[in-house]
Design brief:
heterodimer, A: 256 residues, alpha/beta, TIM Barrel, 8-stranded parallel β-sheet, two-stranded antiparallel ribbon, 9 helices, B: mainly beta, Ubiquitin-like (UB roll), 5-stranded mixed β-sheet, 1 helix, globular, thiamine biosynthesis (chain A), thiazole synthase activity (chain A), ThiG (chain A)
Amino acid sequence: MDIYGETFESRLMLGTARYPSPDVLKAAIAASGAQIVTVSLRRESAGERAGQAFWDIIRETGCRVLPNTAGCHSVSEAVTTAQMAREVFGTDWVKIEVIGDADTLQPDLFGLVEATRVLSEEGFKVLAYTTEDLVAADRLVEAGCRVLMPWGSPIGSARGLNNVYGLRAMRARFPDLTLIVDAGLGVPSHAAHAMELGYDGVLLSSAVALAGDPVGMAKGFRLAVEAGRLGFTSGPLAPRDMAEPSTPVLGLASFA
Amino acid sequence: MKIIVNGESAEVEAATLAGALEELGYGEALVATALNREFVPAPLRGETRLSENDRIEIIAPMQGG
């Protein structure tokens, strides 16, 4: 998987939030095989220093970090958050989220394009959390984005791929761009489906963190991503309406 | 001088953002700062002067999805 010129063997990115404990988080990251994990920023209390402790845990994993702008509802919030993330995490990568709808957490595509333009001009490498909208995708690419992250379905909904046609169309429109399905995946088959469509990778968080056994689910998703990728690259059989015998009929014994 | 730190009132004697961070107990903590909604890079904190009722955000790494 190519992220702004860097190649990663793993095609699974993993969130770090809502795990039952730091130990389970570390074990789940290891079981998932993820080389990139998502992180965020919040107000720090001088007394608790909770952020420092979390950062130590993440550094131990050796993973690359992808800061997000989760919770931002405006361009200025997203831009300022990205600037602060670049300093704290020491990376130009940023997953831009500009949330436009409170119920679905659907991205505000207009704000997303503007934030992407501003940040790209400042040297950021933007990974845009978007929908499958092709016009917005065109605008994002024009604004400098080279990694699009369309939703599978609303964040945390575990509904899988809501619009397979839209995701397929996006893959066809941008054959050379890195496309990652982000959000809404619930079970490993959802990830396999995204990979079979030709997506370069998936990003998941709650599906693993909130599973009964996060480590087991992380392994399940790792296997599904690998299986789905092989399904895409190995020349899948085209569907047809009627049966075709899988056992050759030539030389069949006659008992009539 | 009274300022607002992460949404809560605070009283500081320091005249600069760097001084305020030290005074508030952040010391060498890995944090990023914003003053009145504008990002202030770490190297500029020492020359960033504070005024009464300034709003400071001090943020650090957190779990994300």
